[in-house]
Design brief:
Blueprint: H1 23-34, H2 41-55, H3 57-66, E1 70-76, H4 78-87, E2 91-101, H5 107-113, E3 114-124, H6 127-132
Helix pairs in contact: 4-5
Protein name: CopG family transcriptional regulator
Organism: Asticcacaulis biprosthecium C19
Protein backbone atom coordinates (compact mmCIF):
# COMPACT_ATOMS: atom_id res chain seq x y z
CA UNK A 1 0.00 0.00 0.00
CA UNK A 2 1.38 3.38 -1.01
CA UNK A 3 1.59 5.84 1.82
CA UNK A 4 1.85 9.57 1.28
CA UNK A 5 4.29 11.22 3.66
CA UNK A 6 4.95 14.90 3.87
CA UNK A 7 8.34 15.86 5.18
CA UNK A 8 8.50 19.08 7.11
CA UNK A 9 11.78 20.96 6.65
CA UNK A 10 14.18 20.80 9.60
CA UNK A 11 13.78 23.98 11.59
CA UNK A 12 16.36 25.28 14.04
CA UNK A 13 15.35 24.91 17.68
CA UNK A 14 16.74 28.27 18.71
CA UNK A 15 17.49 31.75 17.45
CA UNK A 16 20.62 33.75 18.07
CA UNK A 17 20.28 37.05 19.90
CA UNK A 18 22.83 39.67 20.84
CA UNK A 19 22.99 41.40 24.21
CA UNK A 20 25.20 44.09 25.64
CA UNK A 21 26.55 43.60 29.14
CA UNK A 22 28.57 45.83 31.38
CA UNK A 23 32.20 44.88 31.90
CA UNK A 24 31.72 44.01 35.56
CA UNK A 25 28.75 41.73 34.77
CA UNK A 26 30.76 40.08 32.01
CA UNK A 27 33.71 39.63 34.34
CA UNK A 28 31.50 38.01 36.96
CA UNK A 29 30.13 35.64 34.34
CA UNK A 30 33.65 34.74 33.24
CA UNK A 31 34.64 34.14 36.87
CA UNK A 32 31.72 31.74 37.41
CA UNK A 33 32.64 29.90 34.21
CA UNK A 34 36.29 29.76 35.26
CA UNK A 35 35.27 28.37 38.68
CA UNK A 36 33.26 25.62 37.00
CA UNK A 37 29.75 26.74 37.93
CA UNK A 38 28.82 26.91 34.23
CA UNK A 39 30.29 25.38 31.09
CA UNK A 40 30.47 28.73 29.29
CA UNK A 41 28.89 32.18 29.10
CA UNK A 42 25.94 30.92 27.08
CA UNK A 43 25.18 28.24 29.66
CA UNK A 44 24.97 30.85 32.43
CA UNK A 45 22.84 33.24 30.37
CA UNK A 46 20.40 30.49 29.31
CA UNK A 47 20.13 29.32 32.92
CA UNK A 48 19.45 32.86 34.13
CA UNK A 49 16.79 33.42 31.47
CA UNK A 50 15.06 30.11 32.25
CA UNK A 51 15.10 31.00 35.93
CA UNK A 52 13.35 34.30 35.23
CA UNK A 53 10.83 32.64 32.92
CA UNK A 54 10.06 30.03 35.60
CA UNK A 55 9.66 32.82 38.13
CA UNK A 56 7.05 34.52 35.94
CA UNK A 57 5.42 31.31 34.67
CA UNK A 58 1.96 32.07 36.09
CA UNK A 59 1.92 35.53 34.52
CA UNK A 60 2.97 34.08 31.15
CA UNK A 61 0.22 31.43 31.29
CA UNK A 62 -2.41 34.06 32.09
CA UNK A 63 -1.21 36.31 29.27
CA UNK A 64 -1.20 33.43 26.78
CA UNK A 65 -4.80 32.62 27.70
CA UNK A 66 -5.88 36.29 27.72
CA UNK A 67 -4.37 36.94 24.29
CA UNK A 68 -5.58 33.59 22.88
CA UNK A 69 -2.09 32.60 21.72
CA UNK A 70 -1.06 29.18 20.43
CA UNK A 71 1.97 27.99 22.35
CA UNK A 72 4.83 26.27 20.53
CA UNK A 73 5.56 25.87 16.85
CA UNK A 74 3.13 26.29 13.96
CA UNK A 75 4.12 25.31 10.42
CA UNK A 76 1.95 26.40 7.51
CA UNK A 77 2.37 24.62 4.20
CA UNK A 78 1.13 25.63 0.78
CA UNK A 79 -1.45 22.84 1.11
CA UNK A 80 -2.72 24.32 4.41
CA UNK A 81 -3.28 27.71 2.82
CA UNK A 82 -4.84 26.27 -0.33
CA UNK A 83 -7.31 24.33 1.86
CA UNK A 84 -8.18 27.50 3.76
CA UNK A 85 -8.71 29.37 0.48
CA UNK A 86 -11.00 26.62 -0.85
CA UNK A 87 -13.08 26.88 2.35
CA UNK A 88 -13.18 30.68 2.06
CA UNK A 89 -11.35 31.07 5.37
CA UNK A 90 -8.96 33.79 6.43
CA UNK A 91 -6.38 32.67 9.00
CA UNK A 92 -5.33 34.86 11.91
CA UNK A 93 -2.06 33.47 13.27
CA UNK A 94 -1.29 34.20 16.93
CA UNK A 95 1.65 32.25 18.34
CA UNK A 96 4.01 32.41 21.25
CA UNK A 97 6.97 30.46 19.89
CA UNK A 98 7.77 29.87 16.23
CA UNK A 99 5.75 30.32 13.04
CA UNK A 100 7.20 28.83 9.87
CA UNK A 101 5.72 29.55 6.45
CA UNK A 102 6.79 27.08 3.76
CA UNK A 103 9.06 28.48 1.05
CA UNK A 104 6.70 27.37 -1.76
CA UNK A 105 3.87 29.66 -0.58
CA UNK A 106 3.46 32.50 -3.07
CA UNK A 107 2.54 36.05 -2.07
CA UNK A 108 -0.91 35.96 -3.69
CA UNK A 109 -1.92 32.81 -1.79
CA UNK A 110 -0.58 34.21 1.47
CA UNK A 111 -2.38 37.55 1.07
CA UNK A 112 -5.63 35.76 0.17
CA UNK A 113 -5.57 33.49 3.22
CA UNK A 114 -3.59 35.17 6.03
CA UNK A 115 -5.43 38.05 7.67
CA UNK A 116 -2.86 38.74 10.36
CA UNK A 117 0.26 37.35 11.98
CA UNK A 118 1.23 38.04 15.57
CA UNK A 119 4.29 36.16 16.75
CA UNK A 120 5.97 36.50 20.10
CA UNK A 121 9.14 34.63 19.26
CA UNK A 122 10.23 34.09 15.67
CA UNK A 123 8.70 34.11 12.20
CA UNK A 124 10.52 32.05 9.60
CA UNK A 125 9.50 32.79 6.03
CA UNK A 126 11.17 33.82 2.80
CA UNK A 127 11.99 37.54 2.69
CA UNK A 128 9.60 38.12 -0.24
CA UNK A 129 6.75 36.51 1.69
CA UNK A 130 7.47 38.62 4.77
CA UNK A 131 7.46 41.72 2.57
CA UNK A 132 4.14 40.76 0.98
CA UNK A 133 2.59 40.26 4.43
CA UNK A 134 4.33 43.24 6.03
CA UNK A 135 1.10 45.13 6.67
CA UNK A 136 -0.36 42.06 8.42
CA UNK A 137 2.58 41.21 10.68
CA UNK A 138 2.25 42.68 14.17
Amino acid sequence: MDQLTTQMPKLPDSEKITINLGYVDLGQIDLLVQEGFYANRTDLIRTAIRSQLDRHNDAVKKSVARHDLDLGMRHYSRRDLEAARSRGEVIHIQVLGLVALAPDIDADLARATIGSIRVLGALQAPAALKAALGDRIH
